[in-house]
Write a structure and sequence with these properties.
It contains 7 helices and 27 strands. Helices cover 19% and strands 31% of the residues. The protein is an alpha+beta fold. The strands form 7 sheets. Strands 5, 6, 7, 8, 9, 13, 19, 22, 23, 24 and 26 form an 11-stranded mixed sheet that branches. Strands 14, 15, 16, 17, 18 and 27 form a 6-stranded antiparallel sheet that branches. The chain has a two-stranded antiparallel ribbon with strand order 1-2.
């Protein structure tokens, strides 16, 4: 290529670059907008709250909890959950540590009262309780998560089923008492509060676990499937959910659109965690309808219920509700939750409250 040809080629190349650059600038000027930003994404923390926006934070050493779909340490996610029987009598309130549970079950015990089973995937709570005695049907709630079952004493039916069903139970009313439990002196000083004064914590539960020698690993598939971001239901509005278990024990959940969570109250009073001073709140509500009855001839009026079989229910999140279906094949397998269409239920990542509710009563949903 001679010098004249080379000069001509370079001149043409410069003109071409200038035309392309001008065209790009004119395109931006014509639209008045730069390139659209990438879709913003919201990331949920361990409490189910929105704490990250935009770029996903580093998740090194973290894994999704099988109980909530939230990010927790890998070693916690790989370990069996622990479930704790919690006293829910009004005189025993406020409770401690249950705001850290990822799932809470509530259903009737004897008389008018309800009792809770709090299920923990991460065992770092410094105070959990008051811990109360076992009822046999709560074993099924622990079995569906392959969870250890923590209690302090129990009914005759519960003691029988712990043996027959080979439940991995930790009973504080035994040689494990000083290893896994203590009594709160402040509560013991109040007349009539002795039975409501037993507590435990994560460290003591791990010590009892090691003492008994139950396995730490689980190979049971998680009961729930979770989406990556909050689910938006298209069903009936459900901003207030009232569950009248009895005349004296009425559970209520109020949706807070700012938190996108439900705040819990009982019989007109906010239910708080004594350790945080905050109202209990959850992302998901499940209402499981079933037959519940008083055991004939039982001197204490204890109850039984149908948990193996199938039935109807509601899934509630984000201020909306849809009908669902539950089924359970035996004591040891997980409960299967599906939509009315038969498709598996996929829930919002976050904590869940499961109300096992008499099917001959009606919740109030508005």
């Amino acid at each position: 290529m001679n010098s004249t040809t080379r000069k001509t080629f370079l001149l043409c190349l410069c003109l071409l670059v200038a035309v392309v650059w001008t065209g790009c600038n004119r395109t931006e000027e014509a639209t008045g907008e730069p390139d659209s930003p990438p879709e913003e994404r919201v990331w949920l923390n361990r409490e189910g709250e929105n704490d990250y926006h935009g770029t996903e934070p580093s998740r090194e050493g973290m894994a999704r909890s099988p109980l909530s779909g939230l990010w927790i340490p890998e070693e916690d996610a790989a370990r069996r959950p622990v479930s704790v029987m919690i006293n829910n009598m009004k005189k025993a309130l406020p409770q401690s540590g249950i705001s850290q549970a990822e799932i809470i079950y509530e259903t009737l015990a004897e008389g008018e009262i309800t009792r809770l089973l709090a299920v923990f995937q991460t065992l770092d709570s410094e105070k959990i309780g008051p811990v109360r005695s076992a009822r046999h049907y709560y074993l099924d709630f622990a079995f569906v998560h392959d969870a250890l079952y923590v209690h302090y004493g129990g009914s005759p039916q519960a003691y029988n089923d712990v043996v027959v069903l080979k439940s991995p139970a930790l009973n504080g009313l035994s040689y494990l008492d000083e290893i896994m439990c203590w009594r709160d002196p402040a509560r013991m000083a109040i007349r009539g509060m002795y039975e409501h004064s037993v507590y435990t914590n994560g460290e003591k539960l791990r010590q009892a676990w090691d003492t008994v020698g139950y396995r730490y690993e689980t190979d049971q598939p998680p009961m729930f499937a979770f989406s990556e971001k909050p689910v938006e239901l298209t069903g009936q509005r459900a901003e207030t959910v009232v569950l009248p278990f009895s005349r004296s024990y009425i559970g209520e959940f109020r949706w807070d659109p700012g938190l996108n969570q439900y705040l819990r109250s009982m019989s007109g009073n906010d239910q708080i965690d004594e350790e945080t001073g905050e109202v209990l709140r959850v992302t998901n509500l499940l209402v499981q309808f079933t037959d519940i009855w008083v055991i004939a001839g039982d001197p204490a009026g204890r109850r039984d219920m149908t948990l193996i079989g199938s039935g109807a229910g509601f899934y509630i999140t984000g201020g909306k509700m849809v009908p669902v279906h539950w089924s359970k094949a035996d004591h040891w397998t997980s409960t299967r939750w599906t939509l009315e269409s038969g498709e598996p239920l996929v829930m919002s990542p976050g904590k869940t409250w499961i109300s096992v509710f008499p099917k001959n009563r009606s919740p109030e949903i508005s």
